[in-house]
Structures are given as C-alpha cells and as structure tokens.
C-alpha cells in the first residue's frame, strides 16, 4: 500500500436513506447515513441487531437500492448498478457456497463469469486455494468441509476476482470461539496480504476492536461515531457508544467551568467543560482508583466479583449512584476490600470523558 | 463376533424377512404376476374369435416389426407400426419438454410465495385431479374444436379469418397431454425449488453472473433431481397415454396405448397386443436408463 493512497476514498455513502414498508408502517433501516471508507482499510460496521449495519452492506453490494442518497465507488456513482456489475464481492453470513460445485469450482466461479481466460482462472484459483490453505480440498464438495473450511472457501471465492472492496456480513458468527479467534487473525492477514478494502459487519465489539483500522458504531439506522478502536473506546461521543463498546460508568451532574458537580455535592474535574446546564461523563472501570475515604469521592463497597485476571468492585456513591472499579487481582486473589467498607474514589488523568446523551 | 451375537444377527435377519413378507407378496401378486401373464400371452397363438390358443408362437412379436404381404408371400417392415411408436415417443418427449417449460416458472412462482400462500397455490394446481380424465379431455376438446371457445374468440377478435384446425391433430394431442400431466411436473419441481437456498442467487449475482447464467449454472443444476423426477412422472404415462390421443387425436393420430387396445378389441390379436405391452415397458425402461445415465454423467463431469 502506497502511503499516498492511504487517504483515497473507495466507498462513499452520501445521505443514504433506506426505508422498508409502506404508509404508517415505514421503518427507516438507514436514516441519513454518510460515511467515507478509505482505500485498503479494514472498516467495521458495529452495532446491535437491527441497527442497519447489514442494510448498509447490502446497499454497497447492490442487493438493495437506497430510498434516497448515493453510493460512490472510487468517485463513480454506483447507486443503481446491479451487483453483478460492481467490482465488489461479499462473504455471506451463511457462506452461500454452491453445493453442486467443488471447492475449486466455487472459487473459480466469479473469474469464469468475468470471462477470464482459462489459464488465468486456473492460476488464480490455485493461488486462492494456497492463500486460504485449502489446496488439499480442491476437489471436495463443499458439504464435506468443516465450518472453518467452508468459511475459507467463501473468503477465497469472494477474493478470487480481486474486487475493489470485500464485504463481510458477520462471517465469523457461525464459528465456535476458538475457530473464531483463529479466523480473526486469518482475516487480518488476508486483508494485509491482498491490500483490498474490507468492510466488516459485526455485533461483537471485541471482534471490532481487535481487527479494525476504523469502526463505525451504528444504532437505530444512524452512524453514531466513526473512529479508530482507541478513539471510540477512549473518546466515546455519546452514551450509546460508551456503553456499547466495553463497560463504563456514567456520572450525571451540573456543568461548572472545568468540572461537573454531582448530586452528592462533590466535584469532578472535567477539563474544558463549559459551565451551564446538565452534563454526563463516562469513566471506564479500569480507570477508577480506590483510596482512603478522605481521598476523593466518598463511596461504599457493595459487592466484589472475582474474574480471574481482575476483580470488579461495585461501589455506591453517597447518593446511591453505582460505580464499578476494575482492579487487577493481586497474587493472593484477595483485593483487600470488604463489603460495606468506606473508600475514596479517584479517576486516572484524562479518564473522565464528557458524553452526549 | 461371539456365537450369541451371531445368533442375534441371524434372528434379526429372519425377522426382517418376515416383516417384509406382506410387501413381497403384494409385489409378486400385483406387479410381477400380471406382467408374467402378459409376457406369456405374447408368445401364444392368436385366436380369431378373441383370446388365445395355448400354442407357442413368435408371430405376436414378429408382427410388431414385420407385416406379412400375402401377394408377394414375404415379410415387409411394418411401417405403420413403427410410425405409431415414433409418434408416441416424439409426442411424449415434446409433452415432457412443454410441461417443463410451463411447469418450471409455475413451480418457481409457488415456491417463492410466502409460506402461508403456498398451500393454496398447490391446492389450485391439484384441482384438475378431482375430475375424471375423460371429462377433462372432452372439455379440452370443447375449447379447441372448430366451433370451440378458442376459435370463436379468435374469430371474433379478428385475429384469424377462418377457424384453426387443431382438433384431431398431433397438436391437439400435445395440448391435451400437456394439460393433463402438468401437475406431475409442477409438484416435484416445487418440492426441490422450495428447498433451494435463495441466498445462492445473491451469491451468484454478486460473483458477476447474469440472471440467465445464474439460472443455467446455479438453479438448474441444483434443482435437477426435481427436473428428473418430473420428467419421468410425465414421460412414462405420456408414452402409454390412451384417453387423450383417442379423443383429441380422433383415432387417426394413434399412440401405442390406442394401438394396444385395438389389438385386444377389434383386432382380435391378443399375442400382438401383449407383445406391444411388453415392448412399451421395455421402451420406458430403456428411456429411464438413458435418462438417469445422462443425468449422472452431467453431475460427475461438472463444469471443470
């Protein structure tokens, strides 16, 4: 990947609306979505089911037409182009492998449809089989393969025609945990080796965080935030993003200049917060530090939950607001806290983030 | 294997035979029995007043292919008989093709309706079965005859200036047989199309296949078992069709079935009739063998 290409936009969705149903029953699966996906990046659409992520993917693939808005591929309007004329391939959630064809025939299908010469079809198919390490399975029917192998065939089949963009619709959801971890690494490797833009749909936040260059968090037909895994985790824009990605504590209060005043009357520093009105801040549990009761916000230990590597300490502030602290478990496994103990809470520098409601 | 295990195995094998005995008896009495009688009769001598004389003869079989010329005192090829065979095979193949061409879109349509509506459509397909075949065939006759509904309508619309002569032609027989056997094509096709994973269409479409190529390279190969089943179900009864060619062909466009009837009734030549029946069976079996062989070869050859 040349550095100069890094910022070139491959897929651009502009004010895309997709409505299903008629009359009063209209559901807006996508509500004015605009997003730019860069050349060669691993871009993830993340959100709960029904958030519109799969609909956006199907619009890019061409299986659905948007109600409003346009979709550009390398600057060309492809909004109404049928799927067989878009240089975009899909890895389906169900794989949708052709049951009457062998592994090799599945992989060469797209190349044959493009009318590539037989020698090229053969060479590309062999290269793809090698890429997904299925050379030994070339002559098998797809029904004779395991789930992980079928997944690889689906990937090879979609990559064989060298699309500009590869769309992946929750491709790992049918695999068990161990295989899923392996395929995550495999997918990332394939993406780096081929340099193809990957658009990956998932509802699994961990999958999104570990694999993606950038993530678009979606909810209720809208993109809530776009950014790198760190961006989204550290600077969540709103309550939805903060709570969907990882776990977090929300604290609500009145905004004062550079701080927020809680209902308990205590102040938390929020650098740059303008005074006036209500405000909510988010603090990740691992950024909560416990100390002596005289030190910081006054709190009481409610329960301790041991998770192995760390221990979750559920605390209550003076007004009953719950705050969770994630403490690294000491070697003994005992966090040295007892239920009902009075403690003081501090937050690590920069850990307090203002979020929109 | 221990002796006890062997004994248990033998006992279970014995029980298996005992349990399948009713089926074997029915098969022997209902399938093999009558068939053997037909084969036996085909090798007997004809009695001019009907029935047979119990005396071995191959005249029945010979007269299928050769006819005796009394003037020249020699056997000549029985052109008329061969023509009937050819017509039967040709009409049956065409009927099979026509029912497929009409039946495939029909089955596809039904299979792609919402599940709650499919039962209704299938029900509509089977309605013609409720009425006697003879009556349905006369109804077809009423539609296509010279003063029938079709011709009157076309004349009234000015599409034609004189009635189309359809009735008592091969076309009439084809129309009739296609109508009668269509459900036999639609039902097995529906059964396979209903199981077809429609997501494969998106996969093919995504991989640059046009609609036509998707049909040819993905849909047809996958629903082939349904096509084979439907074709067999239509072809076999078409070949032995009797009522439809009799009424719509007007006795002039005879098929094997009518020819066999002729031998047993007016012809008073039971051995010939029996030999023809056996021959019909052989043709059907040969056709099925060829069909299955071709279908399997396609499958193993694939697209490589």
Architecture overview:
The complex is a heterodimer of chains A (357) and B (304). Chain A has eight helices and 20 strands. Chain A has 357 residues and is α+β, with helices and mostly antiparallel strands. Chain A has a six-stranded mixed beta sheet with strand order 6-7-8-3-9-10, with helices on both faces. In chain A, strands 13-12-11-14-20 form a five-stranded antiparallel beta sheet. In chain A, strand 11 and strand 12 form a beta hairpin. In chain A, helix 3 crosses helix 4. Chain B has 304 residues and is mainly α. In chain B, strand 3 and strand 4 form a beta hairpin. The longest helix of chain B is centred in the first third of the chain and has 40 residues. Chains A and B meet through strand 6 and helix 2 of A and helix 8 and helix 9 of B. Chain A: Its EC number is 7.6.2.11. Chain A: Keywords: ATP-binding, Cell membrane, Membrane, Nucleotide-binding, Translocase, Transport.
Key structural traits:
heterodimer, A: 357 residues, alpha+beta, six-stranded mixed beta sheet, five-stranded antiparallel beta sheet, 8 helices, 34% strand, disordered N terminus, B: 304 residues, mainly alpha, two-stranded antiparallel ribbon, 13 helices, flat
Précis, in short:
Chain B: It comes from Rhodobacter calidifons. Chain A is built from eight helices and 20 strands. With 357 residues, chain A is an alpha+beta fold.
Main sheet strand line-up of chain B: 1-2
Spatial strand sequence of the major β-sheet of chain A: 6-7-8-3-9-10
Compute the average pLDDT of chain B: 88
Helix content of chain A: 10-25%
Strand content of chain A: 25-35%
Principal-axes shape call of chain B: flat
Subunit structure (chain A): The complex is composed of two ATP-binding proteins (PotA), two transmembrane proteins (PotB and PotC) and a solute-binding protein (PotD).
Organism (chain A): Rhodobacter calidifons
EC number (chain A): 7.6.2.11
Enzyme class (chain A): translocase
């Amino acid at each position: 990947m040349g550095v100069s290409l890094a910022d070139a936009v491959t897929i651009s969705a502009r004010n895309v609306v997709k409505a299903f149903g008629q009359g009063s029953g209209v559901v807006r699966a996508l509500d004015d979505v605009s997003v730019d996906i860069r050349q060669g990046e691993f871009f993830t659409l993340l959100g709960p089911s029904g958030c519109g992520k799969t609909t956006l993917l199907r619009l890019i693939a061409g299986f659905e037409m948007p109600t409003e808005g346009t979709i550009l591929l390398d600057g060309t309007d492809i909004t109404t182009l049928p799927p067989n004329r878009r240089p975009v391939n899909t890895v389906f959630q169900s794989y949708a492998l052709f049951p009457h064809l062998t592994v090799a025939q599945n992989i060469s299908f797209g190349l044959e449809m493009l009318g590539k010469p037989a020698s090229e079809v053969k060479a590309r198919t062999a290269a793809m089989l090698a890429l997904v390490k299925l050379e030994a399975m070339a002559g098998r029917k797809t029904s004779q393969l395991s789930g992980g192998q079928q997944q690889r065939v689906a990937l090879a089949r979609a990559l064989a025609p060298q699309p500009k963009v590869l769309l992946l619709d929750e491709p790992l959801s049918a695999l068990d945990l161990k295989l899923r971890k392996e395929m995550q690494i495999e997918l990332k490797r394939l993406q780096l080796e081929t340099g193809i833009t990957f658009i990956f749909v998932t509802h699994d936040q961990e999958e999104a965080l570990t694999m993606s260059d950038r993530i678009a968090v979606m909810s209720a037909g809208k993109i809530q935030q776009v950014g790198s895994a760190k961006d989204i985790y550290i600077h969540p824009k709103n309550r939805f993003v903060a709570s969907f990605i990882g776990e977090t504590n929300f604290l609500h209060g009145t905004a004062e200049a550079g701080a927020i005043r809680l209902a308990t009357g205590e102040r938390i520093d929020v650098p740059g917060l303008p005074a006036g009105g209500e405000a909510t801040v988010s603090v990740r549990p691992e950024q909560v530090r416990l100390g002596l009761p005289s030190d910081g916000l006054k709190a009481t230990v409610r329960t301790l939950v041991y998770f192995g590597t760390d221990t979750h300490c559920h605390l209550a502030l003076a007004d009953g607001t719950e705050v969770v602290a994630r403490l690294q478990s000491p070697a003994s496994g005992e966090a040295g806290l007892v239920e009902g103990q009075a403690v003081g809470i501090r937050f690590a520098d920069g850990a307090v983030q203002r979020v929109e409601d | 294997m221990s002796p006890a295990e062997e004994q248990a195995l033998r006992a279970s094998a014995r029980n298996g035979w005992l349990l399948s005995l009713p089926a074997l008896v029915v098969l022997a009495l209902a399938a093999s029995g009558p068939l053997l009688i037909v084969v036996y009769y085909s090798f007997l001598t004809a009695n001019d007043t009907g029935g047979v004389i119990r005396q071995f003869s191959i005249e029945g079989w010979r007269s299928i292919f050769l006819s005796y010329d009394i003037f020249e005192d020699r056997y000549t090829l029985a052109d008329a008989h061969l023509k009937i065979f050819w017509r039967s095979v040709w009409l049956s193949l065409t009927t099979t093709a026509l029912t497929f061409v009409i039946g495939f879109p029909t089955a596809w349509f039904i299979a792609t309706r919402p599940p709650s509506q499919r039962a209704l459509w299938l029900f509509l397909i089977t309605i013609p079965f409720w009425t006697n075949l003879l009556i349905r065939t006369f109804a077809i006759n009423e539609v296509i005859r010279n003063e029938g509904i079709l011709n009157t309508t076309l004349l009234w619309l000015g599409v034609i200036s004189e009635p189309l002569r359809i009735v008592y032609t091969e076309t009439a027989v084809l129309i009739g047989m296609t109508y009668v056997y269509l459900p036999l094509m639609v039902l097995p096709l529906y059964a396979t199309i209903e199981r077809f994973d429609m997501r494969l269409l998106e996969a093919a479409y995504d991989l640059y296949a046009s609609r036509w190529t998707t049909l040819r390279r993905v849909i047809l190969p996958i629903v082939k078992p349904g096509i084979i089943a439907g074709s067999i179900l239509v072809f076999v009864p078409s070949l032995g069709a009797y009522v439809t060619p009799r009424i719509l062909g007007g006795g002039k466009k005879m098929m094997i079935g009518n020819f066999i009837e002729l031998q047993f009734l007016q012809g008073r030549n039971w051995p010939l009739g029996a030999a023809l029946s056996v021959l019909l069976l052989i043709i059907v079996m040969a056709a099925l063998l060829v069909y299955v062989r071709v279908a399997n070869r396609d499958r193993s050859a694939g697209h490589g």
